[in-house]
Design brief:
With 196 residues, this protein is an alpha+beta fold. It has 8 helices and 6 strands. The strands form 3 sheets. A two-stranded antiparallel sheet has the order 1-2. Helix 4 packs across helix 5, helix 4 runs parallel beside helix 6 and helix 5 packs across helix 6.
């Protein structure tokens, strides 16, 4: 199941609906505002964000706020390291791997409409959080796939820290209705005021 940008924005988050939940998670922190703005600063906001993502994640309770922030920081460190062509900070890989390993998975085979269907079964019986594990796993799959990773971008707006996967080479803004619109307005202003 996917989630749309419109759904995320209606819930009060400016960015979301990326194909990888991990990108939506790192985009819950707006680093270029002064001061930086944490969109999941409290438990209620974090619960609301995980609720929006619930259709894309295995069932179970939402992760704690501390665990959510820890994973978000590690993911941001890994994505930023890739985008700036440097090594990630010590511990970032360990945090993501630990979150993914905390809930092992296995494939399950089911009969379905005259054929077979496979499902991933998340084993939470020994602790760990399935939503965090699935988010970490999605990040691992993205980071280990050079073709998909080549589509990872930071918004072209210098005042924006949002990340996204570009579906086309033309996409340069995190959202067309925020940063993209600001760029269009700025270009229009520059064109109309140069004539004066």
């Amino acid at each position: 199941m996917s989630i749309s940008l419109a759904d995320v924005q209606r819930a009060g988050f400016p960015m979301g609906g990326e194909p990888v939940v991990a990108l939506d998670l790192v985009d819950t922190e707006m680093l270029m505002t002064d001061p930086p703005q944490d969109l999941i600063a409290d438990r209620a906001a974090a619960q609301a964000w995980w609720g929006l993502q619930s259709g894309r994640l295995p069932g179970g309770p939402a992760p704690s706020l501390a665990a959510t922030r820890t994973l978000r920081t590690a993911l941001r460190d890994l994505f930023d390291a890739h985008l700036t062509d440097r090594l990630p900070p010590a511990g970032a890989l360990d945090e993501v791997n630990a979150a993914a390993a905390a809930v092992p998975t296995s494939l399950r085979l089911h009969l379905a409409d005259g054929g077979y269907r496979e499902d991933v079964h998340w084993h939470t019986d020994r602790g760990g959080n399935a939503a965090l594990a699935a988010t970490a796993r999605g990040a691992i799959e993205l980071l280990a796939d050079p073709a998909r990773l080549a589509r990872l971008r930071r918004c072209a707006n210098a005042a924006c820290s949002m990340l996204f996967l570009a579906e086309t080479t033309r996409r340069q803004w995190c959202t067309p209705n925020i940063c993209g619109n600001r760029a269009r307005v700025a270009r229009h202003y520059e064109r109309t005021h140069k004539r004066s």
